[in-house]
Amino acid sequence: MNDHVDRVLRGLAAASLLAIQFASGEIAAQTPELVYFSNVTATAGDGGPLTTVEEQTAATLDALGEQLRAHGLGYEDVVAMNVFLRDTRHFQAMNGVYRGYFATDPPTRATVEADLPDRDALVQITAVATPDDTEVISPEGLQSPALPYSWGVRTGDVLFIAGATSRDPDTYQPVGGDVQTQTRRVFGNIGMILEAAGMGYGDLVACKVFLDDVRLWGDMNAAYREFVTAEDPPARAAVRGGLMNPAFLVEIQCVAEQSDERRVVLREGQRLGRSPLSPAIATGERVWLSGMLARGDGAEGEARATLASLGATLEAAGLGFGDVEDVWVYLTDVRDAEAVSGVLAEVMPEGAPMPTVAGLPLVGRLGVEIQMTAVVR
Question: From CA 65, how far away is CA 71, in angstroms rounded?
Fold first, then answer.
């Protein structure tokens, strides 16, 4: 990452982390405190540049450990990880190092190939951790992952679900077929994780869909809508992300939250669209927003228009940008990171969280998509 982009991103937060609590200073028994760590990379050490994925993975996880300790946390407190690799061929080497840091009860995880803002980085990590109690969810009918991640981790009323691919629940082996067949198998496995946590599809609040080819979006949607509730489907972002196994066409990573106050957030005059997603889902404790995009003059114009839509949706939920605890920026062209980061720095208030930024091409012709999560204080 060039120095200017790095300064702009870091200028979005006094630190690169954000922990949100209720205004009373107390966290409700069922409402977990979540701490976010974004864009963790390591490309140089005391001995000079780090040039292998093994070196960078170890240094990146060491850096994450330092940030965790600064918040009184440890690796055991991480509930969800996103690993972005510049090249899928680095997957096994990354895993060899990664599993040494998460030997038992590892966090949920999704790993995709992406263009990274730091041009020297081979791996980039985003993580979510909590100081609250956690429970690893291991459904009896779902074969334990052969890779270093857990199917689900629950903390309070929030369940983090690993990026799910089309795997046979009995053998963990890939289940082939077209994207609709694979999407149905993915949701079958997600359903087993939800059930083991005492939840159902109606508790899903936000999903990230990584497609091997964005041209599969329409067919994926047809199968996806079979599993989500029609009246209040979860918020969602869908982008292209290179998957780690060429047998897979789609990977879906979700969060669920049990809440009697669940509702769809709509701006004045807005209705649910034809795609199976809500602009935002409010649960009484948090607001989970979909990835949004809007037309504008170049990446900077798109970012401004998108932030206007996100701001209006937050306002409809009774919140503002000051309540945002997590931000993701998906870019068709990662070279737009500097322009988009500059807009974020202008629009977001002081102390806003550092965004996760990755080159993950969008569905359609636009180049900037932004997704947020906010907390009700």
Answer: 10
